[in-house]
Amino acid sequence: MIEAVRSAMDVSMGRDEDVVVFGEDVGYFGGVFRCTQGLQAKYGKTRCFDAPISESGIVGTAIGMAAYGLKPCVEIQFADYMYPAYDQLTQEAARIRYRSNGDFTCPIVVRMPTGGGIFGGQTHSQSPEALFTHVCGLKVIVPSNPYDAKGLLISAIEDPDPVMFLEPKRLYNGPFDGHHERPVTAWSKHELGEVPEGHYTIPIGKAEIRRKGSALTVIAYGTMVHVALAAAEETGIDAEVIDLRSLLPLDLETIVQSVTKTGRCVVVHEATLTSGFGAELVALVQEHCFYHLEAPVVRVTGWDTPYPHAQEWDYFPGPARVGRAFTEAMEA
Amino acid sequence: MDEFSRLTLHVPEPAVRPGDQPDFSNVRIPKAGSVPRPEVDVDPETIRDLAFSIIRVLNREGEAVGPWAGLLSDEELLAGLRHMMLLRAFDARMLMAQRQGKTSFYMQHLGEEAVSCAFRKALRKGDMNFPTYRQAGLLIADDYPMVEMMNQIFSNESDPCHGRQLPVMYTSKEHGFFTISGNLATQFVQAVGWAMASAIKNDTRVAAGWIGDGSTAESDFHSALVFASTYKAPVILNIVNNQWAISTFQGIARGGSGTFAARGLGFGIPALRVDGNDYLAVYAVARWAADRARRNLGPTLIEYVTYRVGAHSTSDDPSAYRPKTESEAWPLGDPVLRLKKHLIVRGVWSEERHAQAEAEIMDEVIQAQKKAEAHGTLHAGGRPSVRDIFEGVYAEMPPHIRRQRQKAGY
Ligand SMILES: Cc1ncc(C[n+]2csc(CCOP(=O)(O)OP(=O)(O)O)c2C)c(N)n1
Ligand SMILES: [Mg+2]
C-alpha cells in the first residue's frame, strides 16, 4: 500500500505543479514509512521537502499555501502526533471556506499512518478519525487496500476542501485480518493489491461491499474490513461486509440498503468505543432502519483505554471478538 | 523591469549525504578552557556570546583546563566513567535483546552518554527531570535498578508500568524522572510548570526540561521559554543537539538562528552552549544553571553539542541519509574515551583497569538481564495481565470500563 500512496502523489505531482508534499523526514529520506521515497529526487526540493518537527507548523503553512493556490499534501508522521495541529485543522482549515464565503478555500490533504498492530504503544497506535468527523468542514477517508488508497488519495488531492487521509499502517505491507500469529501475506497476492500505474480516481463518499451476504450487515473501514471478512469465514455467518472507505461524506444509501435487507448490523472499528465513529453509525442505522431491525446493533471496538504495548492483541478487536459479535447479533 | 527578481524557496540541506566525505568544518570549536565562567547572578545581557561558543574543559591531552574545571573529585569522576560505561553496556545488551525479539523497540544513547549521566549529578534529591527517551543516564547515574529498566523494556510481569508503555518510556518519581511521553516537546513546558509550583510553594526544588534539537521546532518549546522567562521559573532548559532528528539534519529546526542556544536570547534567558561529549563541562554548566535556579535567579537554557552515533531507534537505518563514517569524523570525540583519558592523566586510572571495568560492567548488566528475563520478555514467559489494560485509566474505574473489562473476560 506504500507504493500505492506514493504513486498517487507521484501522479498528482506530475500532472499538477501546484501539488507540493512535505512533512517530517519526507524529503531526502522519503518518510519513515517511505511513502514519499523518490519524490524529492524527481520533483525537486521545493516541491517535496523536510519540515521542522512542528505539526501545527506543517498544517498551518499548508493552509497558507492552499490559500495562495497550491495543493499541499502533507504528512503527519503518526496520527498520534496530529494533536499539535488540531487547532489549525478544526478552527482554520475546516472553516476557511465558510467564514470567508468562498473568498478563500483550503484544498489540503493531511496524510497520517493510523491504527495499531505494530507494538507501537500508546503514541504509535491511535485511531483519531472521530476527532475529525466531529469537525464540520473536514472530509475523512480511511482506505482498506492499495487500489482504493491510490484512487482515493488522488481524489483527495484534487478535492477543493480539506481532506484527512488516514492510512492504516498495519495494512502498509499486506492485508491484515487480525491473525497476528500467522505470517504476513503480501498485497501482491490480493486482488486489490494490484495498482494501475497512471491516473485514476475513486469518488469520495462511496462505500464498497466487500462481501455480499444475507444474515447481517457489518460496517467497517480500514484494517477492520479484513478482520470482518475473516470473522465471516470463520463463523460461517453469511455477513455482508461494507467497506466505508470514506467516513465523511458517508455513503448512507449503501448502509441503509444493506441493513434493510439483513435486519441485523454489527459496527466495527479499532478506535475506542465511547463517542467513537461507531456511535454515529449506530445512530444513523437506528434512524433509517429502525423498523427493519431484528436485533440491537452491536459495536466491536478498541477498549476505552489508551492503547497498551504488551497487551496489544488483547486490545485489538480481532476476528474472534468480531465473530462473537456476529453470533450475538444473530442470536438476539 | 522591476528591481526585484523572482522569489525562490530556500530549503536547507546538510553539507554531506551518503557517499560524500563527512565534513564538520562548519562546527567551530573553541579551545578547551577558553570560555569565561561568569558569576551565576550575571546580567544575561552581558553573556550573550556564550550562546554562540562551546564551553569545554577537557583538552586534547586529556587535561581539565580553564575556569569551568576543578569541580569534581577523583571518586566522582570515576563514578561518572562507570555510569557512562554502564549505560553503554546496557544499550548494547538491550539492542541485542531487541534483535532477538525480546522486545519490540529500543533507543540507544551511543555518543551522548555524558549528557544525562553528568547532568544527574548536578541535581539533588527532590529535583525533577522531564526527560526525553534519550536520557536514561539520569536513572543509571542515580542508581535506579537496571533490572527495573529491563522489566519495563521487556514489558514483563514485573514491569512497573504493567506493559502499558513503549519500551524505554520509564517513570520514577522517586528518582526525579517524570513519566516519558512518546509525543515530542510536550514535557518541556511541564518542567516549567513544575518549577513554578516549587516557587509558589516557597520550596527549594528545581526542575529540568529536556528536548532534542529537532523537537525545538514544536510550539511547546516556545511556550516553555516564555513562561520560564516571565515567571523566572527555577528550571534548567536542556536542548540536546545531537545533529539529527531521525533523518532530518539540525539545520531544519535551527533555521536562520546561529545556534539552538540563541533561541533563549530573545526571551532574556541566559543561554550556554557546552561540549556534550565532555563529562566535566556538562557537569560544570549544569551545576551553574542549577545554582542559578536554586538562588531564585531564574531559568537557564543549555545546548549540549553532541552527535547521535547510533540509529535513531531500532526502526531506523541512518545509512540511508548520512555518510556511514560521519560519526568517526565528529570532532568532539567519544565521551567515554575522553573521560577515561583524563582519569589516566590524573593518575587514578589505567588501560588495564579500564579493560577490567568493562568486563565487570558487562557482567553486571548480563546478570541484571538474567534476573529481568526470569520475569519474562515481550513474547515469552511472565507477562502483565489483560486486567492491567483497564486499570489506572482513572483513580476509580468508571462503570463503562468495568463492563468492558468483564467483557474481555477479566
Ligand atoms: C509530536 C511528535 N511528532 C513527531 C514525532 C515522531 N518523532 C519521534 S522522535 C523524532 C525525532 C526527534 O528528534 P530530536 O528532537 O532531535 O531528538 P533525538 O531523537 O535526536 O534525540 C520524531 C520526528 C513524535 N514522537 N512526536
Ligand atoms: Mg536530535
Automatic annotation (TrEMBL), chain B:
Residues 82-379 form the Dehydrogenase E1 component domain. It catalyses: N(6)-[(R)-lipoyl]-L-lysyl-[protein] + 3-methyl-2-oxobutanoate + H(+) = N(6)-[(R)-S(8)-2-methylpropanoyldihydrolipoyl]-L-lysyl-[protein] + CO2. GO terms for molecular function: branched-chain 2-oxo acid dehydrogenase activity. One of its GO terms (biological process) is branched-chain amino acid catabolic process. Pfam families: E1_dh, OxoDH_E1alpha_N. It comes from the Bacteria. InterPro entries: Alpha-ketoacid_DH_E1_comp (IPR050771), DH_E1 (IPR001017), Oxoisoval_DH_suAlpha_N_dom (IPR022593), THDP-binding (IPR029061). Residues 10-40 are annotated as: Disordered. Keywords: Oxidoreductase, Thiamine pyrophosphate. This is 2-oxoisovalerate dehydrogenase subunit alpha.
